[in-house]
Amino acid sequence: MQRLVKPRVEMVELAMMFTKNSSLQGDYFEFGVFQGDTFAAAVDAAGRQQLPEMRFHAFDSFNGLPAPKGVDAEGFVHFAEGQYTASRHVFEETLRKRRVPTERVTVTPGWFSDSLSEATRQRLHLERAAVVWVDCDLYESTVPVLSFIGPLLQDGTVIVFDDWFCYHGRPDRGEQRAVHEWLEAAPDFRLVDYRNVGWHGKAFIFHRA
Asked: Residues 162, 135: contact at Cβ < 8 Å?
């Protein structure tokens, strides 16, 4: 969860280019939008790639991070409760300044453990994901995201984990741990390495066996 930098701009552009050239149908999902820079860049990139049917879904507590606990708090102090707080007003102001067409945007506030439910999927009429940006920082926050998006994934969905290499790059912490457990529980899920995103993130392409 940082201000937009070049690797994120390049990644959203590449993801939308992949979506266009792979003839994928589906929406853009971002979990942890902070001030909205990456989200707005994704909308811009989709416009350049002429994806007029794509919708853009923002999910965030708008209260920063929850208190790290369990494996996220063991020996690490990088993340703290309330870190990366940005209000919904700040997020929506970024969209306004970037002239994002809000009729194609949904915003779902709340902690992921509460907001990411089957009722939310039905309320938003969610069917398929083309690009998913996971900027959750913490293991505890990533787990409900993966559970939520699982039924929406299709062959070719691009999934970006913005904090993949945090926690010293350890596979038993943060987003990496959540993903490894998710894949173990769903043996037909496959993630193909796509590219790194700066020093911190990693992108994959999803497939079902």
From this structure: yes
Our measurement of the distance from residue 54's CA atom to the centroid of its chain's CA atoms, rounded to an integer in Å, reads: 16
Q: Is 77 exposed, middle or buried (0-12, 13-18, 19+ CB in 10 A)?
A: exposed
Q: Is 0.85 surpassed by the pTM of this model?
A: yes
The per-residue pLDDT for range 66-120, each reduced to its tens digit, is: 778 887 777 665 777 667 778 999 999 999 999 999 999 999 999 999 999 999 9
Q: What is the largest CA-CA distance in the chain?
A: 46
Per-domain boundaries in the chain = 6-208
β-strand 201-208 against 158-161: which pairing, if any?
A: antiparallel
CATH number for region 6-208: 3.40.50.150
Residue 146's SS3 state is: helix
DSSP characters over 116-136: -SHHHHHHTT---EEEEEE--
Q: How confident is the model at residue 2 (pLDDT cuts 50, 70, 90)?
A: very low
Q: What does R_g of the chain's alpha carbons equal in angstroms?
A: 16
What Cα–Cα distance (Å) separates residue 105 from each residue in 96, 189, 191?
A: 12, 28, 27
Residue 131: name the closest of 159, 151, 101 by CA. Answer: 159
